[in-house]
Design a protein that fits this description.
about 200 residues, mainly alpha
């Protein structure tokens, strides 16, 4: 059976703000091998401090001819493969981890959680919310029955699902409003709105 839950509750359930020991990656679910390979390649060349203190704007233009970068890349490629371009992209992300570990952990955990959560959001959320509204506000038996037919494969009683769908839709509206106020800057809510928009009808 599918699970119905709001993003706020799902995020809280996972304790995404839980701190992790510095430069450990057992908590990762999708990119653990990449980060562990980078960690090992940097340590093998005593290059961790070099990366941490490298000017952030300049790392975008890091040249393969720079000796330490070339050595780290060769060590990284030997462990996990990958092009120099993908190496530089990961290098920038790893630098962020070295400079701001706790926030980097939260960002990665949140991104991984978003991917999993997207599979839980019901399709046709607007229609489901309309049916839920009619079922609750106007006691419409027909709307309740149609709602239940669409949500038959979801855990929980119909009463619980009616409430959660309305909460989900409210999250979408708040996310849409926040994105408008942010002048197009994608925040966590901005991402949430984009993800939900795929399931609106």
């Amino acid at each position: 059976m599918a699970r119905l839950i709001t993003w706020a509750n799902y995020r809280a359930e996972l304790c995404l703000d839980k701190k992790e020991p510095f430069e450990t990656y057992s908590w990762m679910t999708t990119r653990r091998e990449e980060f562990e390979s980078m960690c090992q390649a940097l340590q093998a060349e005593n290059a961790t401090e070099w990366l941490k203190n490298y000017p952030p704007p300049d790392i975008h233009f890091l040249d393969f001819n720079e000796p330490i970068a070339r050595r780290v890349y060769e060590g990284f490629k030997g462990r996990s493969g990958g092009s120099f371009i993908s190496f530089i992209k990961l290098l920038r992300q790893y630098q962020y981890a070295l400079q701001d570990w706790d926030n980097c952990v939260i960002a990665i955990k949140t991104n991984e959680a978003r991917i999993r959560y997207a599979q839980l959001v019901p399709k046709n959320l607007t229609r489901l919310n309309n049916l839920a509204y009619l079922a609750i506000a106007y006691q419409s038996a027909d709307a309740k029955e149609r709602f239940q037919k669409e949500m038959i494969e979801t855990d929980g009683s119909v009463e619980e699902k009616l409430i959660i769908v309305q909460e989900l839709y409210q999250e979408f509206l708040e996310a849409e409003e926040e994105e408008d106020e942010s002048d197009g800057v994608t925040s966590e809510h901005g991402w949430y709105r984009m993800m939900l928009s795929k399931n609106l009808s």
